[in-house]
Amino acid sequence: MTMLAFDTHSHIKRLIAAGFTEAQAEAQTQALLELLENRLVTKDDIRDMATRKDLERMLQEMASQRKMDRMRDKIATKKDVELLSKELTIKLGGILIIWFVLLGIMQVLL
User: Fold this and answer.
1) What residues contact residue 22 under an 8 Å CB cut-off, 6+ apart?
2) Maximum CA extent, the chain
3) CB 64 within 8 A of CB 28
4) How many CB atoms lie within 10 A of CB 29?
5) Mean pLDDT computed over 46-59
6) Contacts of 36 (CB under 8 A, 6+ apart)
7) What angle do CA 44, 48, 53 make, to 5 degrees?
8) Which of 1, 73, 87, 96 has a 20 to 30 Å separation from 80 between CA atoms?
9) Is the predicted pLDDT of residue 27 greater than 90, yes or no?
10) What's this model's pTM, rounded to 2 decimal places?
């Protein structure tokens, strides 16, 4: 975080002139200095923050990526279905051939 320009000496002098003891003025000034250094947002802090446009662009990119992922999943699913269809066709063809062979054998035996 960027250091803030705060004249502690003049602040202490001002508090003493207003009726604070030196110890009170120093304690008050130290507490104020800590608050300023730890709690206030500086221009540097704001500069590093994302803007609304940045967030909207990120959301659009994420939505676009999800859309692409869904399309890839659909393509993969379609290919899987086509492969399963071919496998089933081959297996059913094999079963039909066995059936015809068995029917031929049964006719010859009967």
Assistant:
1) 12, 16
2) 127
3) no
4) 21
5) 85
6) 4, 6
7) 130
8) 96
9) yes
10) 0.37
